[in-house]
């Protein structure tokens, strides 16, 4: 069902320096970008995107471009259409023994609410357990991002904590939830090492 490069309807490849324009297109929808990006709510700059790209290429365990295959019957067909990115940041130097990673996902608006986010999210969970040997996955999500929270809970993630009033936009503070999943638990984690 999953390989390191594909899930049933989607393909995955590493982000490349040529992806700058695509990453810029992910900033087009203000609310989506604000939900995904932890920085101050302000117009993004090309420099910020370029730095983000460099950071992902050098510092991420895997920053994967999520794509629709040109030929849906062949997940390896060329000229896929990029629809989003999942950025998985592995343990920082000195923290490797904990096998814990942090990740986030964003899709272009036109490809949301079609089940692709759930599929890409579950693939990222699978990849981190099965290919990257992670033991624990975690992510942060803002209060009010109900669609994302639903997708994460469906995959088995639980809310483990709350950074109260940790993000400010629209004139008020919003809570940020910490959500986590252990290998072998939850729907998406069951394929993990201990669940096999
Ligand atoms: C969050 C995101 C990745 C989800 O991907 P998606 O393709 O839109 O999601 P899916 O279509 O796979 O699934 C959406 C699910 O949420 C449900 N949903 C939609 N709106 C909802 C809402 N307001 N409240 C609760 N659930 C909601 C849908 O019914 C569906 O659930 P189901 O499959 O059980 O029926 C995508 O919407 C996105 O990129 N958002 C902008 C960036 C972002 O917020 N990223 C997360 C940062 S933490």
Automatic annotation (TrEMBL):
Residues 10-184 form the N-acetyltransferase domain. One of its GO terms (molecular function) is acyltransferase activity, transferring groups other than amino-acyl groups. This is N-acetyltransferase domain-containing protein. It comes from Zasmidium cellare ATCC 36951. It comes from the Eukaryota. InterPro entries: Acyl_CoA_acyltransferase, GNAT_dom. It holds the Pfam family Acetyltransf_3.
């Amino acid at each position: 069902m999953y390989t390191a490069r594909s899930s049933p309807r989607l393909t995955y490849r590493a982000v490349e320096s040529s992806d700058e324009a695509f990453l810029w297109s992910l900033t087009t929808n203000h609310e989506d970008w604000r939900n995904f990006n932890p920085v101050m709510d302000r117009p993004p700059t090309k420099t910020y995107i370029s730095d983000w790209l460099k950071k992902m290429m050098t510092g991420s365990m895997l920053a994967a471009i999520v794509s629709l295959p040109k030929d849906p019957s062949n997940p390896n067909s060329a000229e896929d259409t990029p629809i989003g990115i999942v950025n998985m940041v592995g343990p920082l130097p000195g923290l490797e023994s904990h096998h814990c990673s942090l990740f986030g996902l964003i899709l272009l608006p036109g490809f949301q609410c079609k089940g692709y986010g759930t599929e890409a999210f579950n693939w990222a969970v699978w990849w981190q357990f099965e290919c990257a040997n992670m033991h624990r996955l975690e992510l942060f999500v803002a209060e009010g991002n109900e669609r994302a929270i639903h997708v994460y809970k469906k995959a088995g993630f639980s809310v483990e904590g709350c950074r109260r009033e940790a993000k400010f936009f629209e004139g008020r503070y919003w809570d940020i939830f910490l959500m986590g999943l252990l290998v072998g638990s939850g729907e998406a984690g069951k394929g993990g090492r201990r669940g096999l």
